[in-house]
Design a protein that fits this description.
- It is a single chain.
- The chain is α/β, with parallel strands linked by helices.
- The strands form 7 sheets. Strands 14-13-23-22-21-15 form a 6-stranded mixed sheet, with helices on one face. It has a 5-stranded mixed sheet with strand order 2-1-5-3-4, with helices on one face.
- 43% of the residues are buried.
Length: 687
């Protein structure tokens, strides 16, 4: 790659010839240029004029955000003329901006405040009446004070480029210009909360966070979004051991600068209806009685030993958000006691990571030229991946005819062609009998996306009689718990295991962070039901024993494996409330007590589990590689394993609605309000 030379503020620099704009190149050289409307992940607008600089051979200053760097360029970013221009721009922006900084939630992190401190004047010349603008209703997530708006249009560009549709835009001209909504509607995008971070002033702020805290009072902790399998990097900000808000943490390999509204606004469930102490149901009056940990563990052990000789009467269910260590302790539990009845999506071929891990990296998805999607609604199921497809439509990597979808019709916000509903359409494509097949060989990169549960349920070798190297197959696992089970090779029954609780008469059931049993009527009176989780809900009201566990923001470090095979950690932002304990510690204590056939020791609950962690690293050595991805070459199945492919079935997305597809979001007051706005059914778990 050729290098180019340029001079910035009378200093010579030699840089590579990448197509950076001047403002980006200066930032890489630690030369900061002020800006309001520029964001490197959005299209360039150049309307704030704050980044004006002097460039040689230009009769007047140019905007650095849209000027490409060329060889021999001479730039002045701090000349007297540039400083005067910035002072005039700040004075112009403050003409109609209200002086309400003491009551503005953006205080302390406001770009306009920071730039006014540097370039602003100590007095104003504007003597007329300030303009005011009516506030807009953007929904239950976003608070608007539109008089503060400086028309940087970041919010407009984000919704247009990454949102559902062009819902908001610039209305009026001149002094009457304002940001508004085109129709009588609200922002319903799964990523709409990101415009709060983009807004450089206090025009758009978080409605749940309004008047709660100041930015300098908060302590930030690095963590992950565990509501889907992308593992978006987040920053949990706390004050006095309470989660106050959740912000995105930049990671260009995964979520860039964005997060979903589910994790951004669903943090109110972390303290709602919490289980703080173990409870047991009083059989005489059906009331819950608080007990000690020793009594709770002993109750579990005594009932488990009664059915230990016939473990077909024992059913175990694990949740979709459990970390690796908790699933590893469950693995040790089922191996030690030969438990067969555990929920799992593992049908076959989980010996190869390519059957549940993407073959592409998340950041490479947007560079595919031809895409086939089988029964996946990325907009609802994995909005961060959907953002990659949406982004590609604005970088000219895709055209309208390069994304093909097979399955139930969905309300997608990306340009895609709907080819059909069933596997018959997929057969015709991959056997070369469909009109779209010829594109597969003409494009430089073709990719296929399928659901992990569908992939493991059927023989995928029937799909690929053609040269397989022509297409990259990405198997998408939607939840962390499913990935961890397959990674740890936890072999169990399918998700239909809950049907057996109605069909048969088991004696003992153990739910560890399991969220989706509310759709079933578990009415077996002789069944001992044990729930281990962080939040109490009406779904578990008829359970017999409750063991309180901490969630991913509390207690200790947790490990997660995302859909592209990247191991990441969450760090504790708060302490565990009450007597709640990490899930893996509870299971380890039960295992320790059963193994020693002795009464539980009160102090054993605080064991550090050092030897179990060492065993986990020995079983899965790749756990050591935090932040890295191992290659997952695809392996074809044997053709004789399955013959059900030729029966017709339709591809259908597994998640029907975005807000309310897990326990945390179901209990969130804020997310429930958005469900009402979106017209969602109050039954969050439709079959």
């Amino acid at each position: 790659m050729d290098n180019i030379s340029l001079k910035i503020n009378f200093k010579n620099y030699t840089v590579d010839s990448n197509t950076y704009t001047l403002i980006q190149r200066c930032e890489l050289l630690s030369i900061m240029i002020p800006r309001f409307c520029f964001h490197e992940k959005l299209s360039i607008a150049g309307n704030c004029r704050m980044c004006l600089v002097e460039v040689s051979n230009s009769p007047k200053p140019v905007v650095a955000c849209s000027t490409k760097v060329i060889n021999g360029m001479e730039v002045l970013t701090n000349s007297i003329l540039v400083k005067q221009i910035r002072e005039h721009i700040i004075e112009f922006l403050l003409i109609n901006h209200p002086l309400d900084c003491p009551i503005c939630d953006q205080g302390g992190e406001c770009d306009l405040q920071d730039q006014t401190l540097i370039y602003g004047s100590d007095r104003g010349r504007f003597k007329e009446i300030k303009r005011s603008v009516f506030d807009k209703n953007f929904g239950p997530f976003i608070k608007t004070v539109m008089t503060r708006c400086i028309h940087c249009t970041k919010c407009v560009r984000f919704i247009e480029e990454y949102g559902d549709r062009s819902t908001i835009g610039t209305l009026g001209r001149g002094v009457d210009t304002e940001i508004g909504i085109y129709s009588n509607d609200i922002l319903k995008s799964e990523l709409s909360g990101n415009i709060i971070d983009l807004c450089p002033v206090g025009a758009l702020t978080s409605k749940p966070y309004a008047f709660k805290a100041r930015s300098w009072e908060l302590v930030g902790t690095e963590s992950l979004d565990i509501f889907d399998s992308c593992g978006s990097n987040i920053l949990i900000q706390t004050r006095s051991n309470e989660v106050m808000r959740v912000l995105p943490r930049r990671n260009d390999s995964i979520n860039e600068s964005w997060i979903t509204d589910q994790i951004r606004f669903g943090y109110d469930t972390f303290k709602k209806q919490r289980l703080l102490v173990p409870y047991i149901k009083n059989t005489s009056n059906n009331k819950l009685v608080p007990i000690s940990w020793r009594s709770g563990i002993n109750y579990f052990i005594s009932h488990f030993k009664k059915i230990s000789s016939t473990l077909k009467d024992f059913y175990m269910f694990s949740g979709e958000s459990l970390d690796v260590e908790s699933l590893f302790m469950i693995r040790q539990f089922i191996l030690q006691h030969n438990v067969k009845n555990i929920n799992s999506i593992s049908w076959s071929n989980n010996n190869h990571r390519s059957s549940y891990i993407l073959n592409d990296k998340i950041k490479e998805i947007e560079f595919s030229n031809l895409v086939f999607i089988l029964g996946l609604d990325f907009k609802i199921e994995l909005p961060i991946l959907n953002l990659k497809f949406k982004k590609s439509t604005h970088t000219n990597s895709f055209t309208k005819s390069t994304i093909y979808y097979i399955g139930t019709r969905i309300a997608s916000n990306i340009s895609q062609n709907h080819l059909g509903f069933s596997n018959r359409t997929a057969f015709s494509i991959f056997y070369g009998k469909h009109f779209s097949n010829h594109n597969m060989y003409n494009e430089s990169k073709a990719t296929l996306f399928s659901n992990a549960s569908q992939h493991n349920a059927y023989n995928w070798n029937s799909y690929f009689p053609i040269d397989y190297k022509k297409i990259v197959h990405n198997v998408v696992s939607l939840k962390f718990g499913d990935i961890h089970k397959l990674e740890l090779n936890i072999q169990g029954r399918t998700k239909s295991l809950l049907h057996d609780l109605k069909k048969y008469t088991p004696k003992f059931s153990y739910f560890v962070g399991f969220e989706t049993f509310s759709r079933w009527n578990i009415s077996n009176s002789s069944l001992i039901k044990v729930f281990q989780g962080s939040n109490f809900s009406e779904d578990v009201i008829d359970f017999d024993l409750f063991l309180p566990s901490s969630n991913f923001t509390e207690g200790s470090i947790r490990l997660y494996l995302n859909c592209e095979g990247r191991y990441q950690r969450t760090y504790p932002a708060t302490t565990s409330p009450g007597f709640s304990i990490k899930d893996s510690n509870i299971i380890y204590t039960i295992l320790w007590s059963l193994l020693n056939s002795a009464s539980i020791n009160h102090n054993s609950i605080s064991y550090q589990l050092l030897h179990s962690k060492s065993l986990m690293l020995w079983v899965i050595p790749s756990f050591k590689k935090i932040g890295f991805i191992e290659n997952t070459p695809f392996h074809l199945l044997d053709t004789h394993q399955n013959t059900v492919w030729f029966s017709r079935f339709n591809y259908t997305p597994t998640i029907k609605q975005f807000f309310g597809n897990n326990t945390y979001s179901k209990l969130s007051t804020v997310l429930n309000k958005m469900n009402l706005y979106r017209g969602a059914d109050n039954n969050f778990f439709n079959l």
